[in-house]
C-alpha cells in the first residue's frame, strides 16, 4: 500500500514540478497584486484603514490584515515589511489594540512614534496613508497578561505605552476585576499618546487607576519616585509590567527591588535598543576588534561603536533581521569563535561556538561569524 503523502509535501512537490518553487499559490502573486493586493499568497498583507495623529510625532495606523493572519495576544509584537527606495525593510512594533478588535472587526492598530533619523518610522509617517498595504508578520512575544488574573501595576514611559494600551483594552473587555494601576511618564501633557483612549478607559473601567506624570513641566525633571510606588495599594501582590526608555526601566527595577518586589513578578519589554553609552557595565569593557564573516570570506574592523548587524551591513552583507532591538531573534547567527558583549545587559558571551543576536552583539576582540 502506498503511504499517503501529506498535503503540504504534495503542494511543494506540485509547485516544484509546475513552477520550480515550493509555494505554487504565490506564482500568481504578480497578477493578484494588480487585482487585489490582499489576495497575495507569498506574504500576509494588511491594508491601512485609518491614520490617527496622536501627538506631534506619534500616529496610530489602523490596519485590516488578510483573513489568513493568525491573530495575537495582548502585549505581543509584529514585524512589518515595507519597500523603501526599492529595498524591503522590516521593523518590529507592538500592537496597541485588543485581540477583541481583531476578532470582531478584523482590525488591528499600530501606534508608532517618529524617531529622529529613523528610516522606517519616518517613512511610515511621511508616506503611509489610507488604502496602502504593507507586509505583516505573525505575532510573537511573551509580554502577556497574568493568568489567572492578578493585581497589576504598569509603569510606562513615552511610546512604551503601546503594548499597555493593548493590555488595558483587553482587561476592560474581559472585565478583569483585579486592581490595575498605570503610572505613565511623558515629557509634557502634549506628549500623552492615546490620551482620549486612556481617559475613556479610566471612565468606564472601574478597576483602573490612571496616573499620568509629566517629567519636564517644572524647573527640575520629575522622575519615578519611591513615593509613587508607596501609593500603589497592595504593591507586593502586584504583577509589574515595565515598558519605556531604559533609564526609566532601570530606575523602576531598582526601586521595585527596594520595595521587596520579587524579580519573577516583574515583566519587561523594550521598545528601543539601548545604546552602549547607557549601559554602565559596558564602560569597563574594551570593545571592538576584527570581525571575520566566515561564509562570505570577508573581514571588517570594529571600534566597538557598532553591532555585528551594523558591521555586516556596512560590509555589504544583508543578514536576515527584524526588530533590530533584541526582541524577535530573527538575526540570530552562529558565532564560531571570539567573544561579544550584549549591548542591553553588558554581559559577555562565551569564547566558543554559540548562537548570538547580531543586532545587540558588540565585538569584544576578534570574532568569527557564520555569514
What is the number of independent domains?
Answer: 4
In the CATH scheme, what's the topology name of the largest domain?
A: Rossmann fold
Strand order of the largest sheet: 4-3-6-1-2-5
Give the termini distance in whole angstroms: 45 Å
User: Number of helix segments?
Assistant: 9
The largest sheet, given as strand count, sense and whether it forms a barrel, is:
6 strands, antiparallel
Give the mean pLDDT. Answer: 86
Order of helices and strands: HHEEEEHEHEEHEHEHEHEEEHEEE
Q: How would you classify the helix and strand content by structural class?
A: alpha/beta
Q: Class of the largest domain, according to the CATH hierarchy?
A: Alpha Beta
Radius of gyration, in Å, reads 23 Å
- What general form does the structure show? globular
CATH architecture assignment name of the largest domain = 3-Layer(aba) Sandwich
Which stretches of 5+ consecutive residues score pLDDT under 50? 1-5, 26-35, 272-284
Strand content: 25-35%
User: What's the β-strand tally?
Assistant: 16
Classify the helix fraction into a percent range: 10-25%
CATH superfamily of the largest domain: Nucleotide-binding domain of ferredoxin-NADP reductase (FNR) module
Topology, element by element:
Elements lengths: L6 H13 L9 H7 L9 E11 L2 E8 L11 E8 L2 E8 L4 H7 L2 E6 L5 H9 L5 E4 L15 E6 L3 H13 L6 E7 L8 H10 L3 E7 L11 H5 L8 E5 L2 H13 L7 E4 L19 E5 L4 E5 L5 H7 L17 E11 L11 E4 L3 E9 L2
Parallel strand pairs: 7-8, 7-10, 8-9, 10-11, 12-16
Antiparallel strand pairs: 1-2, 1-6, 2-5, 3-4, 3-6, 12-13, 14-15, 14-16
Helix pairs in contact: 5-6
